[in-house]
Amino acid sequence: MSSKYNHEKIKQSIQGNLRRYEAIALSMVISFEIEDFIKERGISKQELAKAAGVSPSYLSQVFAGDRLLNLTMLAGISQKYQVKFHCDIQEAKVESIREYAFESFGKPHTKKANIYNFEDFKQVHNDKYNNQNRVIGSDCGNPA
Amino acid sequence: MLDKTLAIDKVELDNLEKTVCIDDLLQPVVHLRCPKYKVSLFVREKIHDELMDFLGGKGINPKFVPGDINYRYDKLSAIAAVIYQNRYRDELYRKEQNNPVITAMKFMDKGRNDRIYCREIAFEEGKQVIICEIHSGKKNQENRKKEKNIIKKVAGYEFKIQS
Description:
The complex is a heterodimer.
Chain A: H1 7-15, H2 18-41, H3 45-52, H4 56-63, H5 71-81, H6 95-105, H7 118-126
Helix pairs in contact in A: 3-4, 6-7
Chain B: H1 2-15, E1 19-21, H2 27-30, E2 38-44, H3 48-55, H4 70-84, E3 93-96, E4 99-107, E5 114-123, E6 126-135, H5 145-156
Parallel strand pairs in B: 2-6
Antiparallel strand pairs in B: 1-2, 3-4, 4-5, 5-6
């Protein structure tokens, strides 16, 4: 039986909706940071939902990638737990900068890195990985 | 004697499962991976077409618009974000209890409960996640005989690893 969809066809279909998938990726990255944060602080997902001003089931859908995080939710979390979310914009073509960042931070899995601002990296690097500020970005994960 | 050994080796090599990298299908998410610990997604060559059909929406409810891959690709994007960040999240991608190198991607939406079982092969500098079996329409919360058999099957695969 021949396949109706092939590798190339799927690839082409994705091209038409990159914005949607990028949004999912962004929402997921932020949710990873929030997940780490609530684990560190021992906050339950129910409490988090309340702080974010959404129902627990809505929050579950966000964590399951079925809905996107929105700024009102972040504002609620920020207000309740007195934390700040940072966001920096930089050119997308930054593979080398990302590499620099990860090199700077050395060991994977442990340090938080902000992938969006090169200057921040240098600053944080110079501060000997002082991670007082919670930054939204990319670390190398947290193998369970 | 030597020839015989070589012949056996060749047969064994021929029996190894070949894989196809699908990172190129995850362009919006793949940048999330860490260059210092590279995670890549592969699919067993024998089920590559089946996976493409799955992503194309095969088996999804009748409301599905043919050709619209969003139903499953949305979910795959979220799952891939977890995988590329070398994480696990119960709702999306988790290790199977009985065998930690076997993992399951969960496609639970639109009234369906589909699973994709994977094998994780870890190296010093990264890991490969190989999609091995697609299990459509899981009926129970817990793993029943059918799921256990699939997990056993996935655990038995041997792969020809490509870099």
